[in-house]
Each structure stands twice: as structure tokens, then as C-alpha cells.
Amino acid sequence: MAPAQEALQLFTRMGGGLPTLYCRRTILIANLLRWHQVHTLNWQELVGLWVEAGFPLEAARTRIYLAFYLYLLIETEGAHALIEEITPIVRQEGTATDWAFLLSVRAGISLDRGKSEQAMDDINQAENIFRQEKNLRQAAICQFRRSWIWQQCKEFDRARAELEQALQTLRRLDLPLHIALCERNLGMAFYRLGHYGEAMQRVYQAQRYFQSLGRLDTLADCALSLGNIAYYTRSYAIAVAHYRQSQHIYNRLNNAPLWILSQRNQAMALCAMERPTAALDILTSLEKTSHLVSQPLEFARLLHTKAQVLADLGRYCDARILLQEVEKAMRA
Fold first, then answer.
1. Which single residue of 53, 85, 92, 135 has CA 20 to 30 Å from 213?
2. Given this structure, which CATH class describes domain 1-109?
């Protein structure tokens, strides 16, 4: 990213113009792929500058990345609306690569909207186009994304096979970020298949990659995953340590939903260690704030966990009252 920043400074001193817009987009993309904080306004401002300069296709290309950014922020409907808006101009005036990139982004958005068939169709089309264009890097990334669709459809064997095939290509191309993402997702596929030893090995490998890349968000995800694996293998003290590590990072990133999830999982591990009072303290504290940031289903799960802990403490009446609240939350 440093060369792009230097180029931007040089072009700005020379009077700006179109080269500065290309440099700014390159910097935003680099920040996006590294998951640095990039405000939506940065993208919107750049889109406006492309429109003002009379380059609607470049504006549309920039908006594909904005849609991808919104997708990463789980602003699914906003991402979907943006993709729908720019599809005609990209389809009619863009290159084959532009269209394939739009399809690959749309696939993830469609999956989040519960449209797995549309997602699979889009990612298959995107991969075919990238292969025709001899773009092996993007074709391998499409394989990686297709594996996520298989995982969401609970086809874990297919996801594992897809990831192992994609990993071979990504290693040949030396793409460390996607290698790390592949390793992490392979770990989760093995976890779902009940192969906990292999799962832990893969996630540890991914964690080392992410540490070298300075990726805090995925480091936290790995710690959370390692905690879950340790929990299911009844290594509860190890699970608590991993959950605490993930909480620390999620707190730094201001990721409240995943911070709450990690806290809830820690409480479950403490309860399994026969420390229900410590678990109850965590859950009671969470209950006061989580309803402000959690989805109704997640809040209901939190209350359900607290009810289980109350029952373990012999407070059956309190547990029963809380389960009634769970029922209300589930209907919300």
C-alpha cells in the first residue's frame, strides 16, 4: 500500500486528476482487504468524484467494492440494493472481469439473504469467467467462497474437498491472506465433521498466519473457534482462555455482537467446570446490555443459557420465569 500512497502524493502535487482517483481506490481496496477501518463515506466520496469526472463505469466499479464492504459489515440489504442498482451498467459496459467480480460479491450477499441457489449459481458463473480470463487467483478465491456456501448448506464434506483443492492453488500463487482464510475454514469444516484434533491443528495454523499479517478480526475469530473446539472436547479451562483472548480483541474492535457471544460461551465453559456462580455473574452483566445490540434470537439464547445456570444453582423458579422470557423473545 505504501507505493500507492507515495504515488497519490506525487500526483496530487502535480495537479491531481484521474491518476489520484485510481490511487485513492487502490488504497481503499488495500485497507478493505486488510480489514482496516474504512468509513463508508470514503467510498461514497470517491464514487462522487468519478461521476463528477464523467466516468460512470469507474464509479460503478468502485461501488462494487462499496457493496463488498457493506456485506462484510453485515449490512446485507444495503449491499443488495447497491448491487442491484449497478448491475445494468456493469453488465452492459464493463469487462468480463468486472462482471465476474460483481457476481462473486453478489454470491455472498445472496447467501446472507437465504438464497443459496442464487449464490451457488453466481459463484459458479464467476469462477468460469475468471478461468476463461486466465485469472487463476480470482478463480481460486471463488472456490474458497463456494466452500462457504457448502458450509452454510451443511454440506461439510463438500466444503472440505473444495477448500483443500483451493488451498493447493492459493499456495502455488502465494496468497497468504486467503491461505489463512482457507486453513481457518478447513478447521471449521473438520470441527463440524467431528474431527476435533484436525480442526484444532488447522485453526492454530490459520491463527499463526493472521498474526503475521496483523489481522485482528480474524485472530479473534480463530480464538473463538479454538474455544469452541476445546469446549466440545471437554477441555473447559483451555476453552475459557481462548474465549477471554477473543473477548479482548473483539472489545478493541468494538465488535459487540461477537464479544457478547464469546462471553456467553465462556459462561457455558465455567458452568461445565462447576463454577456456576462465576458463570451467572457474567450472564447477568451481559443481560443488562446485550438486548441493545443483539438480535432477538441471540438475546433469547443468552437468556436460555442463564436459565440453565440458574437451574444448576437450584434456583428452579427463577429459571422457569426466565424460560418464559425466552419464549417471548423468540416470538419477537
1. 135
2. mainly alpha
pLDDT tens track for 138-166: 899 999 999 999 999 999 999 999 999 99
The answer to whether residues 215 and 249 touch, using CB atoms and an 8 Å cutoff, is: no
Show the cell assigned to 221. 475469530
Residue 144 phi/psi, 5-degree rounding, is -60, -45
Instruction: Look at the block and give the residue holding cell 462499496.
Output: 66
**CATH class for the domain made up of 135-263:** mainly alpha
CA distance 145 to 85: 23
Buried/exposed code over 219-247 (b: 16+ C-beta within 10 A; e: otherwise): bbbbbbbbbbbbbeeebbebbbbbbebbb
Residue linked to cell 437451574: 311
User: Is it true that 1-109 and 135-263 share their CATH fold?
Assistant: yes
- State how far the alpha carbon of 104 is from the alpha carbons of 69, 232, 253, 325, in Å: 13, 34, 27, 41
Ordered by start, the domain boundaries in the chain are: 1-109, 135-263, 296-332
> Buried b vs exposed e over 271-310: b needs ≥16 C-beta within 10 Å?
bbeebbeebbebbeebeeebeeebeeebbbbbbbbbbbbb
Distance, in Å, from the CA atom of 85 to the CA atom of 99, rounded to the nearest integer, reads 14
Contact 265, 227 (CB under 8 A): yes
Distance CA 70, CA 30 (A): 16
The Cα–Cα gap between 208 and 229 comes to: 17
Flag whether pLDDT at 20 surpasses 80: no
| Sign of the C-alpha dihedral computed for residues 73, 216, 227 and 147 taken in this order | positive
The CB density around residue 87, as the number of other CB atoms within 10 Å, is: 17
The answer to whether the beta carbons of residues 302 and 290 sit under 8 Å apart is yes
Is pTM, for the whole model, over 0.90?
no
